Amino acid sequence: MTLRIDAHQHFWKLERGDYRWLGPELAPLYRDFGPLDLAPLRARHRIDGSVAVQAADTLAETEFLLGLAEREPSVLGVVGWVDLEAHDAPDTLARLAEHPKLVGVRPMLQDLPDERWILRESVAPALRALVELDLAFDALVKPRHLPHLVTLVERHPDLRIVVDHGAKPDIAAGRDWSGFSAWVSHLRTLGGQPLLHCKLSGLPTESRVDWTREDLRPHVAALLGAFGPERMMWGSDWPVVELGGGYDRWMNASQALVDHLNPAEQLALFGATAAGFYGLELKTLP
Question: Is residue 2's pLDDT more than 90?
């Protein structure tokens, strides 16, 4: 079965009250977003299903998404949130993993004051539990975190890791960004690890409002060069992508930027990689 999958999108309901980053100043995002809002976009771009990713750092967020996934067949998997530093984190993960649509977890590393938080010994038992439970780890990081991610891979070589949003390079600064070379170098190091994957997502919101495909091209090329299409998966980052031009604009740009790939590579990037990495065929499809 060939699937076309959006490997990274969000749902939220404001009345839940735990989206601390989301306020009225982010007007395009400051409302509820649910499956009915996403449905016409999925239909327009022939998306069979999606992976819903946490947007709040609470256990209630994970349970909210899993409950939604039970009612919505197009949600093929959920990447939730668990306090990985809690003493009972392994038990919590084991309980949540009983749900067939839980496919991974994501701590919001980009927002934590300690850049080395994921390397704390207090987190290690939860990371080992992820491996034992066959759950993935979504790394929400920025370029400054990449050296620590390299260390994480060395310590936990069996942990399935996917880098969200290409580690959020400063595309707005263009090739003048002083960290471009270091970002590429770290990506190549990480790309040498066979279990490590990367999402082609989130780039529009790291760009200027008036970004063009050419603004994104060197960054997309660097990501493909580091991981190859077989270990990359396309994600919309909807509805956050509304801050960067919207779903349609990002999808159309993505397709144009990878049109040099052969059909098999494009199938991987737009679905097969996500299905394999998250085990979606095994866990959620008939």
Answer: no
| Exposure b/e, 54-67, CB count within 10 A at least 16 = b | bbbbbbebbebbbe
The CATH code of the domain that includes 170 is 3.20.20.140
Q: Could you give the CA distance from residue 278 to residue 7 in angstroms, rounded to a whole number?
A: 9
Cα(18)–Cα(55) distance, rounded to whole angstroms? 9
Q: Which residues of 83-105 are buried (b: 16+ CB within 10 A; e: fewer)?
A: bbbeeebbebbeebbebebbbbb
Which secondary structure element, helix H or strand E, spans residue 153, and what is its range? helix 146-155
The separation between the first and the last C-alpha atoms of the chain, rounded to the nearest angstrom, is 11
Please give the order of strands across the beta sheet that includes 196-200. 5-9, 49-53, 75-80, 102-105, 136-139, 161-163, 196-200, 232-234
Residue 286: per-residue pLDDT: 46
Distance CA 72, CA 119 (A): 36
Domain count, the chain: 1
Rounded Cα–Cα distance for residues 67 and 119 (Å): 31
Residue recorded with tokens 């959020």: 168
Largest CA distance in the chain: 49
Run of H or E residues at 9 = strand 5-9
SS3 state of residue 147 = helix
**Per-residue confidence (pLDDT) for residue 133, from 0 to 100:** 98
Is residue 230 within 8 A of residue 258, CB to CB? The reply is: no
Q: Domain limits at 158?
A: 5-284
Query: Closest by alpha carbon to 6, among 258, 212, 248?
Result: 248
Q: pTM for this one?
A: 0.95
Helical H segments across 72-136, by residue range: 89-96, 124-133
Backbone dihedral angles phi then psi of residue 79, each to the nearest 5 degrees: -105, 110
